[in-house]
Amino acid sequence: MDLQTLWFILISVLFVGFFILEGFDYGVGILLPFVAKNDTERRVAINTIGPHWDGNEVWLLTAGGAIFAAFPNWYATLFSGFYLALFLILIALIVRGVAFEFRSKLDDRRWRVWWDRGIVFGSAVPALLWGVAVANIARGVAIDGSMTFIGSFFDLLNPYALAGGLTTLLLFTLHGALFLSLKSGGVVQTRATAIAKRLVIPVALLVVVVVLVSAPQLLSRLTVFTVLALVIAVAGLGVALYHTLKSGRFGLAFAGTSAALAGAVLLLFAYLFPRVMPSSLGEAFDLTIYNASSSQYTLSVMSVIALTVVPIVLAYQAWTYWVFRKRLTDKSHLEY
Q1: Which of 195, 204, 181 is nearest to 251 (CA)?
Q2: Residue 324: enclosing H or E segment and its boundaries?
Q3: Is residue 54 pLDDT above 70, yes or no?
Q4: I need a surface site. Which of 46, 155, 193, 326 has the fewest CB within 10 A?
Q5: Per-residue confidence at 94, pLDDT binned at 50, 70, 90?
Q6: CA–CA separation, 136 vs 160, rounded Å?
């Protein structure tokens, strides 16, 4: 395995972690006005992700940094071509982070209501736009021979990409509802469970539709890895569907949506390989792990650092989830 392939795999793993962890994070934020009707209930819902939300975003920052260092041409084309969409995501994440920190600074109902709206906005916009971005990458965008995106923002808002955005929005919302079913108690848990039961069938149907529409593309690059990733995604969704509606074992249902998200991300990367951004203007203009990569020396140094630091970071984050593993109720210590 060459270093370009190694870093392609590492970046795919980082996006798997980001979509699973930040997925339920976004879902809880989106569901805030639906599961919590007073300040105490909102505090319970927010505190389920309070110790984790900023750590979950590190997965995205690390993935972005890895793309910048390992595949600078990919980074340049992606961030210039998707500039407005990524700028909107950044604004939403800033609003969201500030809302978490500021909502408890003033004991005023209207003050908290507006910051709570900021949490909903800052969760829903990235949940939608990440799906739009991923669908456009899978579909291919207008990249010319100089590795420059020559389309416009509105070219990205095609029906296929919007369907992808709706899929991630609803899937993250379901993922968040199942997380709340595990981490909260009382009326917040009851409402989250009811929402999960109402959402799981529409989400499953939407995913099936997107997969069927994508079938010609997938079949054109069918490999053992794309088949395996698709099986993981579909099986995970099936597990979530069964345990949400039938058994009521929401831990297994949450594991199912986690597997579905992991499978979807792995399917994207397996379908792309060795490309990182396909060009809709022709295969000759595709960005690959070879024409978009840094030098061998850079990749070698990064590999040593990553193999040293990443296990420590993973161990620390696993420890934080263990420490804050208890279910929260309206009698729990409330901070936000």
Answers
A1: 181
A2: none
A3: yes
A4: 326
A5: very high
A6: 8
Q: Enter the tokens of residue 218.
A: 């997938």
CA angle 274, 88, 28 (to 5 degrees): 90
pLDDT in tens, 121-131: 999 999 999 99
SS3 of 140, please?
Answer: coil
Q: What are phi and psi of 335, to 5 degrees?
A: -125, -40
Dihedral sign of CA atoms 7, 13, 19, 22 in order? negative
H/E stretch holding 174: helix 159-183
* Per-position DSSP letters for 206-262, written without gaps between them: HHHHHHHHHHHHHHHT--HHHHHHHHHHHHHHHHHHHIIIII--HHHHHHHHHHHHH
Query: ∠104-106-109 over CA atoms, to 5°?
Result: 85
Identify the top-confidence range among 35-49, 103-117, 166-180, 292-306.
166-180
Q: Can you list the domains of the chain with their CATH numbers?
A: 3-273+285-323 (1.20.1630)
**CA 172 to CA 269: how far, in whole Å?**
20
Single out the residue of 142, 168, 144 nearest to residue 155, CA to CA.
142
Taking the C-alpha atoms of residue 168 and residue 207, their distance in angstroms, rounded to an integer, is 9
Higher pLDDT, 151 or 143: 143
Contact 334, 43 (CB under 8 A): yes
Separation between Cα atoms, residue 164 and residue 296, nearest integer Å: 35
- Measured CA to CA, the distance from residue 225 to residue 243 in angstroms comes to 27
User: Is-contact 29 122, C-beta < 8 A?
Assistant: yes
32: left (phi over 0), alpha (psi -120 to 50) or beta: alpha
Q: How many CB atoms lie within 10 A of CB 182?
A: 17
Q: Is the peptide bond before 33 cis (omega within 30 degrees of 0)?
A: no
**What's the CA angle centered on 35, arms 34 and 40, to 5 degrees?**
120
Distance CA 289, CA 67 (A): 10
